[in-house]
Amino acid sequence: MRTSLAALLLALCAWALFFIGINRPATAFFDEPKYVDPAKALLAGNPDASPDGPPLGKLIIAGSISILGDNAYGWRAPSSVFGAVTLVGIFLLANLLLDDLALALTAAAITLFNNLLYVFSRAAMMDTFLVTFAVWGILAFTAALKMKSPGANTRRGLLAASGILLGLACACKWNGVDELCVVAAIGGSLFLWSGKTKNQEIELYGANLREAGAGWFAAAFLVLPVLAYFAAYWPYCRMLHLPFSVHVVGGMNLYIWKFHRAAGGNPPILVPWYKWPFYTQPLRGFSYLVLNWYVMLAGLAAGVYCLRRFARNLPETLIVLLYLANLLQWAVTPQKFLYYYYYFPAAMFLGMAIPVMLSRLPTRLFGVRLSVVAVLPALCVFLYCFGRIANLSAPFDCILGCWL
Fold first, then answer.
1. How far is Cα 26 from Cα 76, in angstroms, rounded to an integer?
2. Distance of CA 60 to the CA centre of its chain
3. How far apart (Å, rounded) are the C-alpha atoms in residues 159 and 162?
4. Cα–Cα dist 217/396, whole Å
5. Per-residue pLDDT averaged across 300-324, rounded?
6. DSSP secondary structure string, 168-228?
7. First to last CA, the chain
């Protein structure tokens, strides 16, 4: 009951924070036209002017425009809802992994104050949708591993839900394949090696997966994601007055692949992926986007600490794999243009690394809860940045001091 109430309050407070002032600026900015214009074209039955990505996010924005109108609220309202749902997913995932409500709230607070979630939850772009589906897909998979005696059918349902959600993440942006690979790798490893270890935690998770069945696991993460991904093309094709066929949908995806291999991007704002973890310069054209500097440094330190228990405990293993998969995939992705905001999915798991580290430390230091100490610097930096990232007008944009 306490967990459910906390999740509800988190959702309402986060949504209110994201939605208030979401109409600033009143015109589409940064990459928003790339998604808003196609959404409006779909509603009019016209061709997609930016067919270089999967369609689900554009369909979500189109649905919002049809309800709220062709204005800043219509474009961005879905992101505010998905951002709040993402925060709840992070809270529930942390609570499931750590079995500690206080640390779960710490994870949610640090994530809320990391700057990135706030900015993306107020922009009509695909990244918030991607992260929401990915986080909840990981949550469903983790629940299948950890839930005590729910029965084989419940575990199968959770695995199926995980596969579908991760497929929908890919239907927003192809980056969703990172989470899908992490989940499949962890599950496959448990099937292969959990019976050969003396680690009781790993042995239990392997037994839980075997209860669901290897065949079901394979279907959940090899078949269902593909079906969910291509299902997003059905309404898309109908709105474009195109047949929903393998030939048509395959051609669309081939174009996406060729486009990202050939396009050069916007050179003035290109940033190599290996600079993202320590990048401190705000992206001025995108609400001064920059990861909360405290979360950046403390999260990386916590991630290094988590490496000590890698492959021995689920929380540390999951966080390290999710962060590295979302970051290092850009080292091999054959895309010539890389932007700092692509760091968003990886950075989301830095906030979770801090409470995971705290779970291995004493609860209090000199009578003060470490979880409170961990959140306060994140809040201070967030408040310092707030005027800029909220697109407040002068003099309120510099109310706590101007920065870059």
1. 11
2. 16
3. 5
4. 52
5. 94
6. HHHTT-GGGHHHHHHHHHHHHHHHHHGGG---HHHHHHHHHHHHH-HHHHHIIIIIHHHHH
7. 45
Residue 384 structure tokens: 């310092």
CA 57/CA 129 separation, integer angstroms = 7
Q: What is the pLDDT of residue 192?
A: 87
Dihedral Cα 42, 174, 119, 239, nearest 10 deg: 10
Residue at token pair 């067919």: 51
> What whole-number distance in Å separates Cα of residue 389 and Cα of residue 73?
17
**Mean local confidence (pLDDT), 83-95:** 98
Place of tokens 């992260």: 131
* Residue 404 pLDDT level (bands cut at 50, 70, 90): low
What b/e string do you get for 279-297 counting C-beta neighbours within 10 Å, with b at 16 or more? beebbeebbbbbbbbbbbb
76 token code pair: 């961005």
CA distances in angstroms from 359 to 19, 74, 78, 107, listed in the order given: 33, 41, 34, 11
Mean pLDDT of 116-142: 98
Q: How confident is the model at residue 402 (pLDDT cuts 50, 70, 90)?
A: confident
In whole angstroms, what separates CA 218 from the centre of its chain? 24
Answer yes or no: are the C-beta atoms of 195 and 206 closer than 8 Å. yes
User: By CB neighbour count within 10 A (0-12 exposed, 13-18 middle, 19+ buried), where does 335 fall?
Assistant: middle
